[in-house]
Amino acid sequence: MKKLSILLIVLTLNTTVKAQNKQNVSATDASWLKNVPESDVIKWRHHIHQNPELSFKEINTSNYVADLLKSFGNIEIVRPTKTSVIGILKGSKPGKTVAFRADMDALPVQEETGLPFSSKIKNVSHACGHDAHTAMLLGTAKTLSKMKSQINGTVYFLFQHAEEGAPGGALEIIESGALKDVQAFFGMHVLPNYPVGHIGILPVGAASTTSDGFNLTINGKGSHGSMPQLGVDPIVVGSEIVNSLQTIISRNVTPGEMAVVTVGKFQSGNAPNVIPDKAELAASIRTISDPTRQLVEDRIRAIVENVTKAHGATYDLEYIKSYPAIQNDEELNAKAKTSAIKALGKDFVFDAPRMTASEDFSYYKKIAPTSFLVLGVGNGVANHNPKFNLDEKALSNGVKAQVQTILDYLGN
Questions:
Q1: Annotated binding site, which residues?
Q2: CB burial class (10 A; 0-12, 13-18, 19+) of residue 126?
Q3: What is the CATH number of the domain that holds 47?
């Protein structure tokens, strides 16, 4: 009897292990993996990298993307704006509608990577990785275009223009009405100094920061340096404003809540013995919540108003509100994490900290819930650096995670 019990236990364990092994194989060896066009993704990335175009000027890039989408088959092409493209894949059965977004624009930065496929355009380069985003989503589109019969619902491959240039391309596409049927938005950004090919799940709630700023001109009264009593020194006024701005984070913002006020420009005068007429300042401001965003603006305005008044100066303030913070949806985040693990294995998925950069992907929340992910591309300099580059081995994992996320969201 004991031998029979032991035999049954062994058989049960073997059956369980086989079932688990079968489940693991199906998670990492899905039938569609053979359709991932890894070499094409690299080729597409090189072409886009060599031919960068600035925000709102992505004419050749968008045409290149549209032509490739047409060549895949089963994909309808929509051009919601002059330089954006949406590829629409309708599955064989009705279901939900999901969008995955990639941005296409480059930066006004002279490339210094020395790559054999470096930018051909002077002072313009893909120093943020949007060439990789576009190439990966093309790979996702090509993979899924061969799976029409297995898809329940509709997929929007959203190739967006002008992420880098405020007010951003997302708002234009939203206002076109082309995305009104979308029920969920996913996006992915390459980031250095995370392991190659690893998918980072950004936090629920604020996954990035807002991007605001100001341009300030302080109008003083010029005078000779030896007779300061006859002038109003805008350098002194500006210095006091800069120092006072530092108290906003340390004394007004709730401790523990992320916020940054950085004055990155202070220009005034050109001679050591002359008090100038004016000083020019500019700042970058990052917050994660609407109340704090308003608090910081109110404090900046009050500090500028009162410090200049105290010194007898006047000012001109241009306060610039740009992209809001991305708000990651809890349910979509959970789905994306499960899908990434299914596609790549749990060792390739991690919980990423909030991005301190901003993104106009945040605007898509006006239509439907959003989830934004990051893809590790190895050690290197930060995005926007002239020497920014990435390990292309990461890109195939990006495509796999995108495909699996789309399939799982649609319930295939």
A1: 128, 130, 164, 189, 384
A2: buried
A3: 3.40.630.10
66 and 178 inside one domain: yes
- Pick out the residues of the known binding site for Mn(2+): 128, 130, 164, 189, 384
Residues 188 and 336 reside in one and the same domain = yes
What integer best gives the mean pLDDT of the chain? 93
Residue that is last in its domain, among 266, 289, 321: 321
How far is it, in rounded angstroms, from Cα 68 to Cα 205?
35
Using alpha carbons, list the distances in angstroms from residue 350 to 42, 102, 203, 248, 357: 25, 21, 11, 33, 19
| Per-residue pLDDT reduced to its tens digit, 100-116 | 999 999 999 999 999 99
Residue 223 and residue 254 in one domain: yes
Tokens of 295: 């608090």
CA atoms of 164 and 108, how far apart (whole Å): 10
Last residue of some domain: 282, 306, 321? 321
What is the number of domains present in the chain?
A: 3
Distance CA 234, CA 257 (A): 33
* 109: its two tokens: 């930065």
Q: What is the tens place of the pLDDT at every residue in 148-206?
A: 999 999 999 999 999 998 899 999 999 999 999 999 999 999 999 999 999 999 999 99
Supply the range of the domain harboring residue 308: 212-321
CA angle 123, 126, 129 (to 5 degrees): 160
- Rounded to two decimals, the pTM is 0.89
For residue 359, CA distances in Å to 128, 137, 364, 373 come to: 12, 18, 11, 12
CA dihedral 154, 155, 160, 163 (to 10 degrees): 110
